[in-house]
Amino acid sequence: MDDAVLSRRSLFAAGAVGLAVPAIGAAVSWNAGAAHAGATRKVTIYAEALPGGLFGYGLAPGQATVPGPLLEIYEGDTLEITLVNTTNQRLSIHAHGVDYSTSSDGSPLHASYNNPGETRTYVWRSREMFAAAGRRFMPGSAGYWHYHDHAMGTDHGTGGVAKGLYGGLIVRRRGDILPDRQFTVVFHDMTINNRMAPNTPIFEANLGERVEWVAIGHGNLFHTFHLHAHRWADNRTGMLESISDPSPTIDNKDLNPGSSFGFQVLAGEGVGPGAWMYHCHVQNHSDGGMSGIFLVRNADGSMPPGAEEAIHRFQGHTHTTTSQSHDDHGGHGA
Amino acid sequence: MDDAVLSRRSLFAAGAVGLAVPAIGAAVSWNAGAAHAGATRKVTIYAEALPGGLFGYGLAPGQATVPGPLLEIYEGDTLEITLVNTTNQRLSIHAHGVDYSTSSDGSPLHASYNNPGETRTYVWRSREMFAAAGRRFMPGSAGYWHYHDHAMGTDHGTGGVAKGLYGGLIVRRRGDILPDRQFTVVFHDMTINNRMAPNTPIFEANLGERVEWVAIGHGNLFHTFHLHAHRWADNRTGMLESISDPSPTIDNKDLNPGSSFGFQVLAGEGVGPGAWMYHCHVQNHSDGGMSGIFLVRNADGSMPPGAEEAIHRFQGHTHTTTSQSHDDHGGHGA
Amino acid sequence: MDDAVLSRRSLFAAGAVGLAVPAIGAAVSWNAGAAHAGATRKVTIYAEALPGGLFGYGLAPGQATVPGPLLEIYEGDTLEITLVNTTNQRLSIHAHGVDYSTSSDGSPLHASYNNPGETRTYVWRSREMFAAAGRRFMPGSAGYWHYHDHAMGTDHGTGGVAKGLYGGLIVRRRGDILPDRQFTVVFHDMTINNRMAPNTPIFEANLGERVEWVAIGHGNLFHTFHLHAHRWADNRTGMLESISDPSPTIDNKDLNPGSSFGFQVLAGEGVGPGAWMYHCHVQNHSDGGMSGIFLVRNADGSMPPGAEEAIHRFQGHTHTTTSQSHDDHGGHGA
User: Fold this and answer.
1) What is the pLDDT of residues B154-204, one digit of tens each?
2) Nearest-neighbour CA in chain B from C63: distance (Å)
3) Residue C316, SS3?
4) What pLDDT, in 10s, does the model give residues C47-106?
5) What's the gap in Å between the CA of A3 and the closest CA on chain B?
6) Can you give the pLDDT at residue C134?
7) What residue range is the signal peptide (chains A, B, C) (predicted)?
8) Which among A140, B65, B192, B244 could bridge B200 via Cys, Cβ 3.0 to 4.6 Å?
9) Are B84 and B147 in contact (CB under 8 A)?
10) Rg of chain A's alpha carbons, rounded to an integer?
11) What is the Cα Rg of chain B in Å?
């Protein structure tokens, strides 16, 4: 790691009522380092085999997760990733939204991958918008992006993506509002983060906390991401950027392979705490297991009335399941 | 009903040339009550079984339609819906875009549904945008939304949605331009409003009238909504919100399950009257029956040259139909 | 042709390293005539049968291509198209985005098509935005649109679209930045421009050139268009229209039947020259052949290091192909 401030936020923790929820997320951000622009951030990522035929990226040996760690930089920063391939498969890391030369493309087209056991460095650069002509600007790198394998199984990384080699990448513009909590949600074939209900993530926040969702699509199917009782502007940040921002406000958005978006909501704002649903709105996908819980606790972290019952209903939920071989139906977490 | 002005607009009427078109729409709006903000509007909705295995929502007993009535409020208003379940099925009403507590979520997760024969009240609140930080705002409730069953058949209301329990919901921002006509178009599996060509709705307007389209997606398939000879800005209102509004102008838009959008056009503006097509642009969907007519009459309401011939061609139209059991192929309306 | 300046840009040419690439594009634009508004532009288009069961539109007899020529006008212009049907099939030309009367709709609904051997004129008009109410405007015609057959095979032109009768149409707003190069990319069922890898187009530009992409969706499947190492604002032009433009920046976008979008990038800007990939990000589509090369040469037109090797890898690429009968698997061009 470099000398910048590093925070590893465990996105999940055993709740006050003793729910067994998986610790499936970690994050690396250098928000505190934002004062000095154009810094180079270095991180080592370990690609590892996981139980159940899955693979994951992690920030330390033995800590790979599905999805991988949420990476976060500011426009102007460079991210230098040393990818350690601890597996017996060819794999890589390919990023959306940032700048890289062909050698960091992560694709077999450019022989840009790690052979089994190999360590290789990938460099991702980012930049601010710059003037085009008139009042126009060529866009900078800011966005809710993602990264994924582009070399396992096929030249497009279909095998790696299918088995969990993906994660979120945020490039912030200076002045962006920072969240209290961050969730990465990957709609991938019939799964959410390679899990099916009732084993899908329970994302938790306290009433009024600013929660950032990073939504990513992968695989072969089309999806729509729906969140109950919360909504966002369909633009770069999810907030209206001025009183005359023309963006529509939505609570359901297409989330198709290779696409990603993000937004911030105030947990339970205007609706109160509770075990709110998020799900794919394609009916046979939600019925088949693409559904999860956004648990908004009381402001003091205690459980609101009815939330436990709702979660128990969810966990007892019968699905007309299209089962997936890489999904574990036993237990409620890892 | 409360003391606000209530208008029930019959969206369909037998045309001057004697077309048999279905009276499938009604609407409740409180536009005239917009002067006083934050009003509570009360409405009773009846969920009923319909011929052909369908179900519908209606504003009075025996008046259920597919889609249900178009509901319309202003940001700041509260909508209190007393849902009367006249059927022998568990069902509910779940809204997109508005605020509700878990007891009005409409989902079995929160035991928020009507048992057979049961009456239950659902409360939907709305609000204006409010300051976040800098010049940013958390978005308000304004939008082209929708409501649907979330309890019949499965925990996601798949059975109710499949059989017609859905409708449009508009939350307006103060100052929004009001239309002369409103159409609700639901792309749902291989149907439009649970009908297939040539029994799909013929939406009618006179040349130059301001027509508002509310488009909603449901079911298991992906769709694209295309309207001939008219176009709109891909933003909140469908109009450019200023001379520098960056939104693209489109005439074809993804309309996938759980998504909705709306826009206003001036009927026949720049192109003249005629029997204009609207259809899903997925080729085997349009060929299979997802096609209908937007009949723009002359300004005085008379039929323009060629429109009758076009409609007769449409009605004689042969489709390479993927038939749907819940579609009635007999007659041209109800 | 009328008296306006006509440029026919060959989008493809044999490269310096002797790559055999297809000359599949031509374009007609009247940019030089932009000074006088509201001009009427006349063009003759020939619909022709092509080898392999394909059909194409062309600007002269024997010059039909898939996709057809890229047409380009300014808001306010009228385009008068004389369509010569040299085939033995019923066919037409239907435009998105512009104004036309029912007789130029291009659909059998309005008997607006060419019988075999018939010549017929279609008139497309365009206009600037005009005031609605308050600061709002009804949108003008500016956009990245497209045209296609609407009469061959079915009333929706499914046969013509399947066999290659489609092309791009740009309506510019005065003041729009003009590109150095233009590429038309049609995602159509399992093909790109009715070709599959490794026979998909190699689009070429020199480092720093302003390249305009026009992306169009057709057929029965959903797609997502992804371009490596480049990105654009998800708005009308692909550039941020001001420092406070709220549009997200993306590098992957839904490209479904009937939809189109366009954007400009500076070739290799910030990433350098190279054989960059573009592909559908639906995994079994990219694996199945929906992948191609955006070859960014050095600024002087010479080949950058590694590009030839990458292209050779691409051409030797093994695909888990879902073969399509209308795709030619022999050779690397036409």
Assistant:
1) 999 999 999 999 999 999 999 999 999 999 999 999 999 999 999 999 999
2) 27
3) helix
4) 999 999 999 999 999 999 999 999 999 999 999 999 999 999 999 999 999 999 999 999
5) 30
6) 84
7) none
8) B192
9) no
10) 19
11) 19
Closest partner CB to C224 (pick from A101, A141, A258): A258
Q: A243–B142: do the CB atoms touch at under 8 Å?
A: no
User: In CATH terms, are A1-176 and A180-334 the same topology?
Assistant: yes
The listed CATH number (2.60.40.420, 2.60.40.10, 3.40.50.2000, 3.50.50.60) that belongs to domain A1-176: 2.60.40.420
Chains within contact range of chain B (3+ C-beta pairs < 8 Å): A, C
| Burial of B175: CB neighbours in 10 Å, binned 0-12, 13-18, 19+ | exposed
Task: Using a CB–CB cutoff of 8 Å, tell me whether B258 touches chain A.
Answer: yes
Which of helix, strand or coil describes residue C154?
coil
Residues 6 or more apart whose CB falls under 8 angstroms from that of B329 comprise B196, B199, B323
Interface touch B139/A231, C-beta < 8 Å: yes
Per CB-CB distance under 8 Å, the chain C contacts of A100 are: 229, 271
CB-neighbour burial class of residue A62 (10 A; exposed 0-12, middle 13-18, buried 19+): exposed
Q: Tokens 């008009």 label which residue?
A: C125
Could you tell me the residue ranges of all domains in chain C?
A: 1-176, 180-334
Considering only CB atoms, C249 lies closest to which of A132, A134, A139, namely A139
Beta bridge partners of B216: B186, B260
> Which residues on adjacent β-strands are paired with residue B125?
B78, B99
CA C142 to chain CA centroid, nearest Å? 16
CATH of domain B180-334: 2.60.40.420
Whether residue C316 lies within 8 A of chain A, CB to CB, comes out as no
A248/C contact by beta carbon, under 8 A = no
B108 contacts A283? CB cut-off 8 A:
no
Tokens standing for A145? 């992006």
Side-chain half-sphere exposure of A143, counting CA atoms within 13 A: 29
Q: Among positive and negative, which fits the CA dihedral C12, C13, C17, C22?
A: positive
- Judge whether A246 is closer than 8 Å to chain B, CB to CB: yes
By C-alpha distance, which of A85, A73, A9, A7 is closest to A41?
A73
Q: Please, what sign has the CA dihedral across residues A252, A255, A259, A261?
A: positive
8 Å CB contact of B110 and A310: yes
CB-nearest to A306 from B102, B137, B245 is B102
Pairing of strands C130-131, C137-138: antiparallel
Using a CB–CB cutoff of 8 Å, tell me whether B104 touches chain A. Answer: no
